[in-house]
Amino acid sequence: MLDADGFAAPAAPLALRGKIAWICQGVRFAALGYAVWTLYINVAYWSDATRINDGYGRFLHRDLSGVQPWQQAAAFGVNFVNWLLAALACYGAWRLFSAYLQGDVFSPRSAMWLRRLALFGIAAQLLGIAARPLLSLILTMHFPAGQELRIVNIAASPEDLSTLLLLFGLLALAHIQKTAAEIADDHARIV
Q: What is the pLDDT of residues 44-95, one digit of tens each?
């Protein structure tokens, strides 16, 4: 019997599910909570010009109190695209831990969802880093042309690197898990 992803549905060992069920449920709901929470934060932040001036203005060392509504909308749009990638990573986490709940731990299906989680997470992180200069440009466009108040700020932090290292580690684990599942499947056919 095939599951919704086209993979053979495994028999769920009850002992394993009993040991990992609370972890799986916790991660699933944490991923959902993260996606909803970050969307709310982005909507609340980018709709408030005072918060933008207090946050980004301090970061860029500029008075952004004259930021225009189109700038707020454009900055939100950039962040929304990044959020979509992060939300897809969260969906990948939901599906991965749902597979684990069904006892499908070391299988091509769980490897596929782990890979998707990692790839969407990497894309979101890289877009977040690349968006910083774009956001600084968008938020300083209301200053007159030729002034030194317009800025393109390029910034990265150690947290960016640690997040990317973690996500690349998950991607490597996905490939290892897929290979192990294929070897186990080949072995089962031989025996």
A: 999 988 888 888 888 888 888 888 899 999 999 999 999 999 999 999 999 9
> Looking at the DSSP assignment, which residues form a beta bridge with residue 8?
2
For residue 164, what are its two tokens? 């990317």
Please state the domain count of the chain. 1
pTM over 0.90: no
Cα separation, 159 vs 60, in Å, equals 19
3 state DSSP class of 132: helix
Host domain of residue 151: 14-190
2 assigned to some structural domain: no
Domain assignment present for 1: no
Q: What is the CA radius of gyration of the chain?
A: 22
Return the SS3 of 2. strand
Residue 7 maps to a domain: no
